[in-house]
Predict the structure of Leucine-rich repeat-containing protein 3.
Amino acid sequence: QAFFCLLLCVPWGSSCPPSCQCTERAGAKAVLCSSRHLEEIPKDIPRDAVFLKLDANSITRIPSNAFRHLSHLEELDLSRNAIEKIDRAAFKGVAAGLRTLDLSSNRIRSIPKEALLALNAKLRLANNPWHCECALQEVLWEARLDPDSVQDITCHTAPREEYVGKPLLQVLDAGVNFCSVRQRTTDVAMFITMFGWFAMVIVYVICYVRHNREDACKHVDYLKPLPSAQGHAE
């Protein structure tokens, strides 16, 4: 009976992952998991965590709802990992309260804009092998980026070779609009599709007319050898 009472009295959010260190910082819980050789985000992070450091590990992916239970989280450090994929709902549940999100020095080439645009947090995205495209441009325009690191968001790959190696902000300041490029590509694809359908209709009409003409000619050829009604009357 005393055992069950102990289970009920101990708050579920007070446990600490075995690979991390939990401390109090200015009255708020800080969970420190830096340089712990982690390959994924720990499942048992305390619910009352306010500061979470997962930097300098080997995490490769941020799955959907990875931090959903951490409603008090304000600062999240995921820098210096091997993150390549971020799901659309990766930060669902923490968007409202998160103030700082550090994703710098990873292996991120692209990111769903839905994953970041709902956040009010200040973002650090520097030193990733970014592929410069419309989604990244929209993030740069609409998200709250750390002004000290925005110049380090560099095009590792891009639609045109001349943009490679340049800061994305510099490319955009030069008048490049990756979203309009995508729109033009879409317009061309729609034009080609419409032209293809139009060509199919024209071919069908031509074949239909030719087929009817051939049937008419056969009918005329069939009627020619038949004796006329006048011949029978004579």
